[in-house]
Amino acid sequence: MTILITAFEPFQQETTNATMAALSLLPDQLCGVTLEKRVIPVVFGEAIDAVTKLVDDLRPDAVVCLGQASGRAEITPERVAINVMDARIPDTAGNQPVDTPVREEGPAAYFSTLPVKAMVQAMKENGVPASLSNTAGTFVCNDLMYGLLDHLARTGQAIPAGFIHVPATPAQACDRPTPSMAPETVAKGLEAALKTLIMK
Ligand code: PCA
């Protein structure tokens, strides 16, 4: 079994992304499952292209994409991705789409096919703050989640896939006060969440 797990590069004038530190702390093997770890650009469309290419090349059994959600105090699996790009700030390539569909003619939304409630429960049982989120926003994270689920639906790949947002790191919170979580704690939570995919 293989799980593809992605982090994002830094964005919004930051030098790091909280997902990069957490991803680097995850093992390469978890309960006999190979974790294929990749870092992808914070660019509308390009993130989708990168992840869907990885999916088609690696043929993983599940896909978990990670993003940083500054301001959140818990790890938050996302329930739903919506068919809109509405960027408050430019992505790292300077794109700033407003009120634009991710895919013309695409459905309004896709639900995560990850066991989101079991993941939240597993993280909390391991002492890591977590809750279910009902919005992935309208920036690149939502774009990637929508594009990934759309690709899987349209290519008939019925594998669990979805998105998890994580808080800023304590180092990031030193520059700009915001709730934060140590990368070690995030990694511990993510391991517990990933195990719900493995133990099924
Ligand atoms: N968070 C942004 C994009 C990249 C990231 O880590 C988001 O929530 O859309």
Written account of the structure:
The chain has six helices and eight strands. The strands form two sheets. The chain has a six-stranded mixed beta sheet, with helices on both faces. It has one domain: Peptidase C15, pyroglutamyl peptidase I-like (Aminopeptidase), CATH 3.40.630. The mean pLDDT is 97. The protein is α/β, with parallel strands linked by helices and 200 residues long. Helix 1 packs across helix 6 and helix 3 packs across helix 6. It is 34% helix and 19% strand. Strand 2 and strand 3 form a beta hairpin. The relative contact order is 0.24.
Summarize this, please?
The chain is α/β, with parallel strands linked by helices. It has helices at residues 18-25, 46-58, 116-125, 140-154, 170-175, 183-198, and strands at 2-8, 29-30, 33-40, 62-68, 76-77, 80-82, 109-111, 161-166.
| Distance, first to last CA | 12 Å
Quote the CATH topology. Answer: Aminopeptidase
Q: Rounded to an integer, what's the Rg over CA atoms? A: 15 Å
Strand order, largest beta sheet: 2-3-1-4-8-5
Q: Fraction of residues in helices?
A: 25-40%
Helix and strand run: EHEEHEEEEHHEHH
Average pLDDT number: 97
- For the record, the CATH class is Alpha Beta
Largest sheet: 6 strands, mixed
CATH architecture: 3-Layer(aba) Sandwich
Class derived from helix and strand content: alpha/beta
The CATH homology group name: Peptidase C15, pyroglutamyl peptidase I-like
Counted up, domains total 1
Extended strand count: 8
DSSP helical segment count: 6
Oligomer designation: single chain
Low-pLDDT residue spans: none
What is the percentage of strand-forming residues?
Answer: 15-25%
Shape: globular
Name the ligand types. pyroglutamic acid
